[in-house]
Amino acid sequence: MSAVAVAAAVVVAALTLYAIFGGADFGGGVWDLLASGPRRDAQRDTITHAIGPVWESNHVWLIFAWVALFTCFPPAYADIATYLNAPLTLALLGIVLRGAAFVFRNFAADNPALARSWSVVFGASSIIAPFFLGDAVGAIATGRYAWTSPFALSVGLFNVALCAQVAAVFLIGETDDRALRDDLRRRAIRATIAVWVVGLIPAAFARYAEPAFFAALTGSTARVAIAIAVVLGIMVMLFVARRQENLARASVGAEAVAVLAGWFGAQAPQLVPGRWTLESAAAPTATLTAFSIAVACGAVLLIPSLLYLFTIFKVRSQA
Amino acid sequence: MDHVIAARAQMGTSLAFHIVFAALGVGLPLLVFIAEGLWLRTKRRAYYDLARTWAKGMAILFAVGAVSGTILSFELGLLWPTFMRYAGSLIGLPFSLEGFAFFIEAIFIGVYLYGWDRLSPRAHWLSAIPIVISGGLSAGFVTMVNAWMNMPAGFRIVNGQITDVNPIAAMFSPPWLVEDVHAALAAYVLTGFGAAAVCALALLRRSAEERVEQVRAGLTIAMAVAAITIPLQFVVGDTIARFDAEHEPAKFASLEALWKTQRYAPVTIGGIVGDGETRYGIEIPGALSWLVSFDPSTEVTGLDRIPRNDQPPVAAVHLSFDSMVGSALLLLLIALAWFVTVLRKRRLSRWLIIAIAVSGPLSLVALEAGWFVTEFGRQPWIARGLLRTTDAVTVAPGIDVQFYAFSAIYVILGATCWWLLRRVGRSPQAAERKPLAPTPAES
Ligand code: HDD
Ligand code: HEM
Ligand code: HEM
Questions:
Q1: CA-closest residue to ligand 1 atom 15
Q2: Among positive and negative, which fits the CA dihedral B411, B327, B70, A85?
Q3: pLDDT the model gives residue B436
Q4: Which of B59, B86, B99 lies nearest to residue A67, judging by beta carbons?
Q5: Using CA positions, which residue lies closest to atom 5 of ligand 3?
Q6: Which of these, A111, B77, B246, B344, has the minimum number of CB atoms within 10 Å of its CB?
Q7: Which of B87, B95, B436 shows the shortest C-beta gap to A45?
Q8: How far, in Å, CA of B156 to CA of B164, rounded?
């Protein structure tokens, strides 16, 4: 692989991991907002419990992707940061408020009024952040940075649905209260259907308003990716219904990979269609090489540490 | 509001906010590590309670540090895209390494904060070590970027284009070592005096009668860290100043508000910095020349040798520098007084406890002033000699609205954080929402 391809793969991998793990945390916030029924408080406790130890490290994937982008593709980064200033700022506000609100509400537990207000902030910002991140991605795909276009906005909506789906599937294994698990199972299945339905909207807008992107979407790479994603979605529902939580988690993760890889595969080698290709935006080879070596060395430390974290807090709690 | 001013105000506010939490994020893990280690050794309950209380503060502070740091990393592109287009491939390496340091830090913060009941006491204690190391490294990597901005290295300019990019040379630009050590020490100075001040206040207010042993232990640990690091900070700070005298004459002349190039140059303390002269300052004749090279007849470059449009805002730099050094001197005296008292096995006098309570705000002043020195002192350049701040700013509209929005966020975050920390300090048991018991398996 060329140095540029390695760098691009790292950016996409970081974004995908953020979509899965960061997405699950945002989705947790969405479900926190939507918590209802007799087990409302128990639902919220499960979410708090699940997100607590991991959200800070999950969140670093975004920072890492952002840094990798400006290190390896500086002019495209400068372009994106300039023309998508507004949606990125809004996403940033969401990200900041989400993180702060999550911690604040936990520490304000004995002041119900304050805890409740921060809870609402937590839920609302968990929708705002993935919405505008999705919107920014959609805007890049238009090649015009058209972040207010119906297409880009509908990609934002799609991203929120995806986060909610991933979260619901991930959360099932976080509790062993049967009734609570059944609540979450229902949510996971509904969210999977919602992802399909909401996913049709950007496709429809693309059909009429974004011919270039629609052509890519109906190209062979994207078609395969979409087919795989749909099959994985069916598997998610199957595994959820059969109470095989770990397989369901794996499938929903793979589904997110298929969606992102499909999008990127359809767009490559364009980085911002019509403006920047991976080659034209690439940093000098010396930088790409140094970056790749740094990533390889960093991964040697990172992967065991992450596994350690998840073994302590995720595997044990569900065996 | 003017576009450039709005962007600079936003960046400056964000950095001034973040650096406090970042510095505490570097320093607090060390304090917690020491306290928990003492508990493991002595099995004295007070140390355990101390570690748990500090760890709760750490949880809150770390979260605010993480989100404010995220703001900064976005703002690099959102406010200064031209800078990033030029410099991204040069400064990306330390930022990428910093990303890994963040990962390790965030992972082990999760392990540490939520692992009290899940790990053996020893394993739990050891899990603080990666936090201490990666916290120091993340501050180090980002300060390397600041060093590069002061003295850009690792490239050549051919026909106005940057070529021969060498990211390793860029990462290790000449000031990196002194600035890294200085910034790391600053984090420990702030955390040491800051935590000691909180304990001192509790003693003065008698608000923690039933936990007085814990509070005294906290004061001792925190002051020990502060008293070791503050003298070192003088040595390192002095080294930086001498480095600036040689390599960054415009900044150095501004630190000292020295307008005329001269031998036997004086150190000027305070004063009113006017245009072309500094009046009413306290002058120590010959001292500056002596400090630069231990010979009072050394010639020191003044601002008269710096073209007008390359001069930093002299008054701001000079005032910040004096605030930093002035606070540092007071801190040194307080640390000395504490050290002598402990050495003579005396009880801390009420006056000394008051002084320690004051040392918290003083160390904050020193930290912020130090940041102002490095940033104002670099103006009008964003990367010295390479790119001017006015040329680096974004063309995106609405930056002033953003500035107001983020300022409001900082006020809210700062106030909530303050309020929660006070409650943690007062009744550490009550504050946190009870986590669910670890859930055993269902198969
Ligand atoms: C030791 C302190 C320090 C360090 C390590 C850095 N900065 Fe800085 N920076 C500041 C302290 C500062 C500041 C004091 O907060 C400034 C100066 C004036 C201002 O508005 O904010 C600032 C401004 C500032 C600006 C706006 C231009 C200006 O007004 O000067 C940019 C683009 C950067 N910084 C970029 C960076 C980057 C990419 C860094 C790497 C992390 C970085 N700075 C590290
Ligand atoms: C001397 C100045 C700085 C120091 C010492 C410093 C140090 C740190 C430390 C120790 C952390 C993690 C600990 C915590 O959150 O409490 C942190 C977080 C962060 N910092 Fe800074 N930082 C500085 C300036 C900056 C700047 C200028 C940027 C932006 C470019 C930045 C970006 C970040 C980011 C993105 C995070 C979040 C990481 C996470 O999610 O855990 N920092 N910083
Ligand atoms: C007498 C003691 C001190 C001296 C002579 C001194 C000197 C300096 C100098 C010359 C700089 C500018 C570095 C540059 O060229 O960019 C600086 C920066 C700084 N100082 Fe100090 N300093 C002292 C004490 C302190 C203390 C006590 C603190 C904090 C508790 C502190 C915090 C900082 C910080 C955060 C910076 C900016 C980071 C950097 O550029 O390394 N300093 N100091």
A1: B12
A2: positive
A3: 39
A4: B99
A5: B237
A6: B344
A7: B436
A8: 6
Provide mean pLDDT across the span B146-165: 82
Reported ipTM: the value is 0.79
- Which residue CA neighbors atom 20 of ligand 3 most closely? B370
* Residue B171 in tokens: 């990462």
CA A264/CA A277 separation, integer angstroms: 12
Tens digit of each residue's pLDDT (9 = 90 or more) over A27-74: 888 888 877 777 777 777 777 877 777 777 788 888 888 988 889 898
A window 225-284, beta carbon within 8 A of B: 283-284
**Residue type at A16 in one-letter notation:** T
The average pLDDT across A199-210 equals 87
Looking at residue A14, its pLDDT comes to: 87
Euclidean distance between CA atoms B30 and B4, whole angstroms: 39
The SS3 of residue B165 is coil
- pLDDT tens track for A246-283: 888 888 888 888 888 888 888 878 888 888 888 888 88
Select the residue of B64, B82, B423 nearest A100 (Cβ to Cβ): B64
Q: Which of B375, B384, B389 to mutate to test the pocket of ligand 1 (most atoms within 8 A of CB)?
A: B375
Per DSSP, helices labelled H in B206-313 are 212-247, 249-255, 287-293
Alpha helices by DSSP H, chain A: 3-17, 23-34, 40-51, 55-72, 74-83, 85-107, 112-142, 150-172, 178-209, 211-217, 220-241, 245-267, 278-281, 285-310
B173: DSSP letter: -
* C-beta B108 within 6 A of ligand 2: no
The pLDDT assigned to A318 comes to 45
Does the beta carbon of B324 sit less than 6 angstroms from any atom of ligand 3? yes
Q: What is the pLDDT of residues B207-228, one digit of tens each?
A: 777 788 888 899 999 999 999 9
Say if B78 is an interface residue toward chain A (CB within 8 Å): yes
What average pLDDT does range B387-415 have in this prediction?
85
Residue B205 has pLDDT above 90, yes or no: no
Distance between first and last Cα of chain A: 39
- Strand pairing category for A270-272 and B156-158: unpaired
Chain B residue with Cα closest to A42: B436
Residue B443 has pLDDT above 60, yes or no: no
In sequence order, what are the beta bridge partners of B111?
none
